[in-house]
């Protein structure tokens, strides 16, 4: 093969490969981290997941660690899918139902989960009152659980010691 043609052939194969991944029927959403900060709180993710030290402790914190490198947003969605059974069960218990979410909303939340500047801005001021109430209820339940180390739903202090 001619030495000039080979790199060109390789480059075009690479480009075609890249293009094949963008199927004609796909549309990439906006990854709006500022909107994500709002939705992360208003949709109730914050009831269980913390960011910047604010939020529930029932689930892994969603602070972005730059050391982990950039993330494929679909890997984030796949992690949610993997945790879905537990998450939905707990949402029914703590929020009264499954969180409704659209694709663009999820894209915004994923952007927030990977944007250290937006995460640093996150405070209780972002959390609507009704969500803040649920957050406090979840915290209270936790304190009750901690006072009931043997998990029999009776606070240990109330149990007879004979
Ligand atoms: C009622 C509690 C609750 C709510 C609300 C909730 N989650 Fe979760 N989430 C969990 C729990 C518990 C897990 C861990 C599940 C497991 O380990 O199987 C989890 C797991 C995850 C994971 C995977 C984390 C990992 O490191 O593997 C992601 C990502 C996630 N949730 C995102 C969200 C987003 C985004 C929202 C809001 C739209 C949300 N969650 C709302 C409880 C919740």
What is shown here, in short?
The protein has helices at residues 5-21, 33-42, 45-48, 73-82, 84-94, 103-112, 116-121, 129-146.
List the keywords.
162 residues; 0% strand; binds heme C
Number of strands: 0
How many structural domains can be distinguished in the coordinates? 1
> Which cofactors or ions or other ligands sit in this model?
heme C
Based on secondary structure, the structural category is mainly alpha
- Low-confidence segments, given as residue ranges, are 10-20
Radius of gyration: 22 Å
Strand content: under 5%
Task: Estimate the helix proportion, in percent.
Answer: 40-55%
Q: Provide the residue-averaged pLDDT.
A: 84
Order of helices and strands: HHHHHHHH
Number of helices: 8
> What general outline do the C-alpha atoms trace?
globular
What does it look like?
This protein is mostly helical. The chain has one domain. Helix content is 53%, strand content 0%. It contains 8 helices and no strands. The chain has helices at 5-21, 33-42, 45-48, 73-82, 84-94, 103-112, 116-121, 129-146. 17% of the residues are buried. Heme C is lined by residues 43-45, 47-49, 58-60, 76, 79-80, 83, 86-87, 90-91, 94-95, 99, 101, 109.
Furnish the topology, listing elements before pairings:
Blueprint: H1 5-21, H2 33-42, H3 45-48, H4 73-82, H5 84-94, H6 103-112, H7 116-121, H8 129-146
Helix pairs in contact: 2-6
Bound molecules: heme C.
């Amino acid at each position: 093969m001619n030495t000039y043609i080979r790199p060109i052939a390789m480059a075009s194969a690479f480009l075609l490969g890249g293009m094949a991944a963008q199927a004609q029927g796909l549309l990439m959403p906006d990854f709006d981290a500022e909107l994500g900060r709002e939705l992360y709180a208003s949709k109730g993710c914050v009831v269980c997941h913390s960011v910047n030290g604010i939020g529930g402790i029932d689930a892994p914190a969603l602070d972005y660690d730059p050391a982990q490198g950039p993330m494929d947003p679909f890997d984030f969605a796949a992690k949610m899918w993997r945790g879905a059974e537990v998450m939905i069960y707990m949402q029914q218990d703590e929020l009264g139902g499954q969180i409704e979410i659209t694709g663009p909303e999820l894209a915004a939340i994923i952007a927030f989960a990977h944007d250290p500047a937006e995460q640093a801005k996150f405070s209780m001021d972002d959390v609507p009152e009704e969500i803040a109430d649920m957050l406090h209820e979840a915290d209270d339940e936790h304190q009750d659980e901690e006072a009931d180390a043997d998990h029999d739903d009776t606070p240990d202090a109330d149990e007879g010691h004979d």
